[in-house]
Write a structure and sequence with these properties.
75% of the residues lie in helices and 0% in strands. With 134 residues, it is mainly alpha-helical. The protein has one domain (2-130). The longest helix has 23 residues, at 108-130.
């Protein structure tokens, strides 16, 4: 019960930490993602692991450095997939991270999804750089 209380108490800080690293257009989805994580306590750990990677990417780390962090976090296959997916969806450099951490060849559909996310991130970056978001 103590762990559950600690996790629930930590949810607002996880939401806030993520919002410091993502575009405002993604805030609602981020909040939903974090709140859903309390349904399974392990997912909170994956949110935290993804935030660690998102943070270093936001600070300009290389993809190789981010990949080292992912590999050092001790995930099983499912957990690693979830962390990669969270970074992909929310990090400004998520699509590139997904490409860097993919094992094997991607399908055409996967490549199209990645390109679409890259395009969306470019559009958002340009909008915030130009000040059109105000």
């Amino acid at each position: 019960m103590e762990r559950i209380n600690k996790v629930v108490y930590n949810i607002p800080s996880l939401i806030e930490r993520g919002q410091e690293l993502i575009y405002p257009e993604k805030y609602n989805e981020w909040e939903k993602c974090v709140k859903k994580s309390i349904l399974d306590l392990h997912h909170v750990e994956e949110i935290s692991a993804a935030l660690d990677i998102m943070d270093v990417l936001d600070k300009g780390a290389s993809m190789e450095e981010a990949k080292v962090i992912l590999n050092s976090q001790g995930h099983d296959d499912i957990s690693e997939y979830m962390v990669r997916n969270i970074v992909f969806l929310f990090s400004n450099r998520g699509p590139e991270f997904w490409e860097e951490t993919t094992i094997g060849e991607m399908t055409i559909d996967e490549k199209q999804i990645i390109e679409s996310q890259k395009y969306q991130n470019i559009q958002l970056a340009q909008m915030y750089k130009s000040g059109k978001h105000i």
